[in-house]
Amino acid sequence: MKVLMIRKETDVWYQRLKEFFNKEGYQIDLLDMWTYTLDKQTTNEKITIFKKGIFDKFPVLVLFKRLIAAIILLGKLEKSYDVIHIFNIKRQNFWMIPKLRKLTSKLIVSVYGGTTYNLWTKRLLFSRVFKYIDNFTLANPYMMEEFLAVYGEKYRERTKVIPLPVAFLDVIDEVMAKESREESRQKLGIDVDKITILPTMAVYKSEHHIDTFTNILESELDKSKVFFLFQLTYGDSGEYKKSVIKFIKDNFKDYKYIIFDNFLSYEDLARLRISTDICIKIIKYDQLSSGMLESLYTGAVLLTGSWLPYKQLNDIGINYYTVDNTREIKNLLPDITNNIHEYKEKNKNHHQILYDEFNINSTIKKWINLYN
User: Fold this and answer.
1) Residue 287 CB: number of other CB atoms within 10 A?
2) Crossing angle, helix 12-23 and helix 266-275, to 10 degrees?
3) Contact, 326 vs 217, CB < 8 A?
4) Residues 6+ apart with CB under 8 A from 195
5) Which region, left, alpha or beta, applies to residue 189 given φ > 0 means left and ψ of -120 to 50 means alpha?
6) Cβ neighbour number for residue 304 with a 10 Å cutoff
7) Is the pLDDT score of 10 beyond 60?
8) Of the candidates 273, 267, 294, 277, the residue with the CA atom closest to the CA atom of residue 178
């Protein structure tokens, strides 16, 4: 079966996903509208239309460049796919949907993370192409109900709940089986005897980095006990990322920390999750973050925003702690660090619960059922 996926090629999650689909006998072509690249497994070609350059500093030129690249890449697709699966559809790509419909007998759109909310604000534009889409998938039942509340009950039969697979659970297990937690920390350059805090997993403005970091700095933490892990391996790669790194270097001088700002190998990403004691996920909007779930999988304590739609975790027995705003971090974080063993003791069952719910084999089977 030939499948065209439209998503970010540089996303390590996609590469892992592709491996599993290949094992099931699927050929996967990837159309990446972020890097203007078509990776054709069906013909073993990789085509890049434009590389990043000085024109990317000008939004109007970027839009024009993206349009030209999309037109060229559409012309280079296979003339027939069994399934076309769009992940995180962007507003500027709505016009492509009728054209993609002509190349397949089944068109699926998966809506994840902040994209969900962005789409709802553009619902008139999005709903105009609904007639070309066979199925929508959302990451959890609560988001599906919100989706239907916006777009209408008439789409219920076409809307499915399929969580984004947590692609590295098996890798985490493999690393945990061959090395201790202390060894994982040593290989990443992390102090083995400190309480580790992971306050970010991506570089998006919606993550409220500076506000979150400021409130962490204002909390009464024992500087000798904690070690910060700043994961900045995906998201913005320009001026915003530079500003976040500068803020860390200027303000966390009294703490021990390490910045991960280049892509990590599968094993090193697993080691980072294994090494994390406390994960802070403060973001404007989300569905269910894979990195967050991976940290919970290894027993980390999660501190997150009360406004985020994580009720599914409550339903399956996952413990986590919420704040109503970033200012409350300074009240709760010291208590967690001072009583870390008691907090982590409550998370003993997370490993099995999360594997049963989110392992990649289970999710891919759900997608294959949808494809067929």
Assistant:
1) 22
2) 120
3) no
4) 225, 226, 227, 277, 278, 337, 340
5) left
6) 20
7) no
8) 267
Q: Which of 77, 143, 106, 91 is nearest to 287 (CA)?
A: 143
- In angstroms, the CA 163 to CA 359 distance is 10
| Inter-CA distances, 103 with 89, 126, 181, 211, 369, Å | 17, 20, 49, 46, 20
At position 47, the amino acid (one-letter code) is I
Q: Do the Cβ atoms of 247 and 209 come closer than 8 Å?
A: yes
- Convert the pLDDT of each residue in 107-122 to its tens digit: 999 887 666 656 666 7
Question: What are the DSSP E strand ranges found in 254-365?
Answer: 256-260, 278-281, 301-305, 321-323
In 14-82, DSSP assigns E strands to 27-32, 37-40, 45-48
For residue 168, CA distances in Å to 102, 105, 225, 289 come to: 35, 31, 29, 13
Q: Tens of pLDDT along 198-246?
A: 998 888 887 889 999 999 999 999 999 999 999 998 777 678 899 999 9
- Is 273 a residue whose pLDDT tops 80? yes
First-to-final CA distance of the chain: 10
Calculate ∠ Cα 173-335-199, nearest 5°: 50
C-alpha to C-alpha distance for 277 and 70, rounded to whole angstroms: 43
> CA-to-CA distance for 47 and 54, rounded, in angstroms?
21
Predicted confidence (pLDDT) per residue in 279-304, tens digit? 999 888 777 788 899 999 999 999 99
pLDDT given at position 263: 83
What's the confidence (pLDDT) of residue 20?
Answer: 83
Q: Give the residue carrying structure tokens 């201790």.
A: 180
Exposed e or buried b for every residue in 124-159, given b needs 16+ CB within 10 A? eebeebeeebebbbbbbebbbebbbeebeeebeeeb
